Amino acid sequence: MQGFVDIHSHMIPSGDDGVRSVDEAVELVLEAASRGTAVQYATPHAMDRHPFTDERRRRVTAAREQIRARLEGRVDFRVGWEISPEPWLLDADPRMLSMEGLDACLLELPLPHTGPRNLNTFVACGEHIAAAGLVPIMGHPERCDLVNGDLDQVTELRGRGWLAQVNASSLLGRHGSCVQDAGWTLVETGRADIVASDGHRANRPPWLDEAFAVVAARAGRERALPLFTGAALAPLATLPLPQAEPA
Ligand SMILES: [Fe+2]
Asked: Which of 26, 74, 85, 107 is the most exposed place for a label (fewest CB within 10 A)?
């Protein structure tokens, strides 16, 4: 079978709450590879608290080259950005923030601690991305308290061609039962397009094997495979997605 395609992680030092060094990234990504990951995206935060600046972009690009050299082709290591739904994006060119090798941007749903009262800014940001010819990938909708009690909103936005990315950690119950239930509902009703790790550091690592086993056991291997191997990304791919065998 194909290896896992993990489109959401913080496996690059960028000054956010992900890994702090190239060494740390390489160690965790190699462990991910040993657990079946073939393509590892690093998606540092782009948000008011961790702004998308030229300096940060240069830092991420330099770290990417160092990490790639150290990985020696054992993992296809790519970079994107995890965009927070904030007004600054509406003045930015989404193509600068897109996922390497995909006509898409990863746009997270607002988390409860950021205190949004509605999805207006999120939807405006997604429409701004779509207007640039890119597909918004909705990051962890199950973790958003404006959405996880009313998953019809995911249905509506997927109806526009947007994709839904569920966190592996949510399915494993690491963000509470309400988030876990919403994640499983999205998987079991066919409204999850991709499962990704959102791995940050060793205490929240970028592994997908455990969640894959659980989804395969509960929903069937045929349903699990496309979610973990990036099947939904194929129409958006501008670089080939490898057909590697997991270790
Ligand atoms: Fe993230």
From this structure: 74
Does the reported pTM lie above 0.90? yes
Report residues near ion ligand 1: CB below 5 Å: 82, 198
Strand partners, 165: 139, 194
Distance 187 CA to ligand 1 centre (A): 19
Give me ligand 1 centre to Cα 137, in Å. 12
H helices of 83-232, in order, are: 120-131, 152-158, 168-171, 177-188, 209-219, 221-229
CB 69 within 8 A of CB 111: no
For residue 226, report the distance from its CA to the centre of ligand 1, in Å: 21
What residues contact residue 71 under an 8 Å CB cut-off, 6+ apart?
Answer: 26, 29, 30, 77
pLDDT tens digit sequence for 194-206: 999 999 999 999 9
